[in-house]
Specification:
Two copies of one chain form a homodimer. By secondary structure, the first copy, chain A, is α/β, with parallel strands linked by helices. Chain A contains ten helices and five strands, in the order βαβαβαβαβαααααα. Chain A has two domains: 5-140, Rossmann fold (3-Layer(aba) Sandwich); 144-208, Arc Repressor Mutant, subunit A (Orthogonal Bundle), CATH 1.10.10. Helices cover 52% and strands 13% of the residues of chain A. In chain A, helix 8 (169-176) crosses helix 9 (180-194) and helix 9 packs across helix 10. Chain A binds chain B through residues 12-16, 18-20, 22-23, 37, 84, 86, 107-111, 114, 163-164, 166, 168, 196-201, 203-204, 207, and chain B through 12-16, 18-20, 22-23, 37, 84, 86, 107-111, 114, 163-164, 166, 168, 196-201, 203-204, 207. Chain A binds a DNA duplex through helix 7 and helix 9.
Chain lengths: 212, 212
Amino acid sequence: MPEIYRILVVDDHKMFLEGITSILNQEEHLEIIGIAYNGKQALNILKEQTPDLIITDIEMPGLNGISFVKAVRSFDTTIKILAISSHQSSATIHQSIKAGVNGYILKNSGKVTLLKAIAEICSGHRFFPQSVQAILNNSIFKKDNSNQNIILSNREKEILKLIAREYSTQEIADTLCISKNTIETHRKNLMRKTEAKNMIGLVKYAIKTDLI
Amino acid sequence: MPEIYRILVVDDHKMFLEGITSILNQEEHLEIIGIAYNGKQALNILKEQTPDLIITDIEMPGLNGISFVKAVRSFDTTIKILAISSHQSSATIHQSIKAGVNGYILKNSGKVTLLKAIAEICSGHRFFPQSVQAILNNSIFKKDNSNQNIILSNREKEILKLIAREYSTQEIADTLCISKNTIETHRKNLMRKTEAKNMIGLVKYAIKTDLI
DNA sequence: TTAAAATTCACGGAAAACGGTGATAAATGG
DNA sequence: CCATTTATCACCGTTTTCCGTGAATTTTAA
């Protein structure tokens, strides 16, 4: 591990970006080698330079944080990645971990947590503070509310998206050129899987899991 | 106007708070007299101290920014208030203006915009940058998509919330102890007002406008 | 005070959703 | 290769939504 950690910061909120760089610049052993306002910009920077650590926001326009992390991991598995997010949804945290982040902290944590996260991650450990673990734990216990085991097929996702666009069963059948009965079967399976009581529940699920 | 502006900063994201104070502290004519993590804390500080300017986030847990601004305006109309938000929804901006903010900037604007906003507001002007005005303009032209003229009554909001909780018309009637027919009338009025095709559209509206 | 809006209620018919059951063929995965 | 999942389709009965129309009472605002 180097004496000085070279860091790339990615966040679409310019003000947050300036704030965080202002904090990091006060630390002698941390060097900001670049900033980017979105995943695409960050990938361009990574073509030229290789930081020790990437600090990235998760919710960003264009190429979002999770896709960005996946993209980075597709060509480099050694760069450390710390996700900073205001997203408290366990689905997002899980997705981030699956994508390959080394740590995940919330934006409402402070400077101390940030610096601790950087230190931990740069020395090879993972960093998921109590606050983040609590969210994951809750989601595990609340199996009824946000079950992670739900796996929807592509067809089901496709139909769910149309339902969310206020299409009726008949209209979906016409759109996909299949029987209305088939759509009804898919609809029933979707309700069973997501434990939704009706279409409203389905759409809320779709929104919650960022399907739409 | 004083030589030195006394500022109270309110934001639930500790990291953002530290970032912004770090930026403001570099300015000699700005003095941070307090920070708060939510509206309630901020109101407590205001019992003891009176800043020239309040910089507040809009989306906060507990007492949210808009309610906080309204609360402040109920006992003080002279304190300047600058809203900093990542919310790009025109509804939120309108609500903030209605609540009585003197300016509204987005979190993806930079230090320069922030300082300009502070200067403008403290000298008695309002500050709504191009980016914010663009959102408002778009929403006016996009009357079909996000009509600002929709005004739902309290009863309608109440019923919409229950709809969003997957309650059927009958269940809502039982909950509110009124006729099923009445609920149907409300439902029809809601659909007409929001131009929703069905319950799905209603719930999406509710989510979009942060009703639920 | 008077007009407008909000809240309440009713009836009837067409359309859609909901629930259960059963079944076939193709694709997938261990 | 074989079990599972996926995707397709059908039927039937009940419930709910959706749509139109009409109306009375209370509350609110000009």
